[in-house]
Specification:
- The protein is an alpha/beta fold.
- It has one domain: Metallo-dependent phosphatases (Purple Acid Phosphatase, chain A, domain 2, 4-Layer Sandwich), CATH 3.60.21.
- The protein is 25% helix and 22% strand.
- The chain is built from ten helices and 13 strands.
């Protein structure tokens, strides 16, 4: 679904409470911030049987501009998180990177910052010691304590606010607070302003909640109405999220690929939709390689095997 510019402005009502009300009313009946998780649930989960895929070659043999990985729904301190963390560290040894997008639910169950050692610093110690930098956003579990403010202030998450932007090489990243109580009155106009002024060849947005998903939470119609018109207008190539504890890569939807990488500590079942390029309920992370004219996305399991790979071609200006 897409809206023209006039419909979009009417719907969002910049400078009013209309957007917040529209989002609250449009969210699925299974409200995305209502699910609780405990350590035992994660420890009991077993990843799917191993499959592998032949890596796609970059046909243009372009110079690699940036490599990063993304993962979400990690902060349990349980065996699943450690398994994914070890796979991320092993991948780093063979394919160096210095950036990780951490797409929310960084600390279970309630965002308690006093757990940071157990659920972040210890699991990712090998990567942190190598100077790998995490950039995080807030998930629904993270805001349960002090509305997530301690995490925003935590230096290891490199958050420049509840929503922020930063640039690496030819890529500009835009981090969103997608929670129900986010400051949408200011965040949405900020996003449009930052997207419109960016001259980066590649634009990547990340937030915790899903937009297109074949998993537990399904399609987020509120965000399709409010966010995807901006993605289309300003040529956002990739949206990264968690929330659904699975891996899913969509086909191109109005110029944007949607990537769920929420299986960073445990999994839930996931199906397929008409837009699905690949989906899997397995512990995993995503590796992203950025070239001048293409982005290569790889889904990687705890065994270090690539189980999915797809290419995003740069849109013509």
């Amino acid at each position: 679904m897409s809206l023209n510019r006039r419909q979009f402005l009417v719907l969002t009502g910049f400078g009013s409470l209309g957007l917040i009300a529209a989002i609250a009313k449009s969210l699925p009946l299974r409200t995305p911030w209502s699910t609780d998780v405990d350590r035992a649930e994660f420890d009991s989960l077993i990843p799917d049987s191993t499959t592998s895929a032949t890596p796609l070659s970059n046909s243009a043999e372009e110079e690699l501009l940036l490599r990063f990985v993304s993962v979400a729904d990690t902060g349990t301190g349980a065996t699943g998180q450690y398994a994914v963390a070890r796979a991320m560290a092993a991948y780093h040894q063979q394919n160096p990177y210095d950036l990780i997008i951490l797409a929310g639910d960084n600390i279970y169950n309630n965002g308690e910052i006093e757990k940071i050692d157990a659920v972040f610093e210890k699991p990712y110690q090998a990567l942190l010691q190598q100077g790998v930098k995490f950039h995080a956003c807030l998930g629904n579990h993270d805001i349960r304590t002090a509305n997530g403010d301690p995490q925003v202030r935590y230096p290891g998450f490199n958050m420049q606010g509840r929503y922020y932007t930063f640039r690496r090489e030819d890529v500009q990243f835009f981090a969103l607070d997608t929670n129900y109580n986010a400051d949408w009155q200011n965040q949405l106009p900020w996003l449009e302003q930052e997207l419109s002024r960016s001259d980066a060849p590649w634009k990547i947005v990340f937030g915790h909640h899903q937009i297109y998903s074949s998993g537990h939470y399904g399609v987020n119609r509120a965000f399709i109405q409010t966010l995807t018109p901006l993605f289309q207008q300003y040529q956002v190539s990739l949206y990264i999220n968690g929330h659904d504890h699975s891996y899913e890569r969509t086909q191109l939807i109005n110029g944007t690929t949607y990537l769920i990488c929420g299986a960073g500590a445990g999994t839930r079942p996931i199906g397929r939709s008409e837009w699905t390029a690949y989906s899997a309920a397995r512990l995993s992370f995503a590796a992203v390689e950025v070239y001048r004219n293409s982005i290569v996305i790889s889904g990687i399991g705890t065994d270090g095997q690539v189980f999915d790979q797809g290419i995003i071609k740069r849109q013509s200006v």
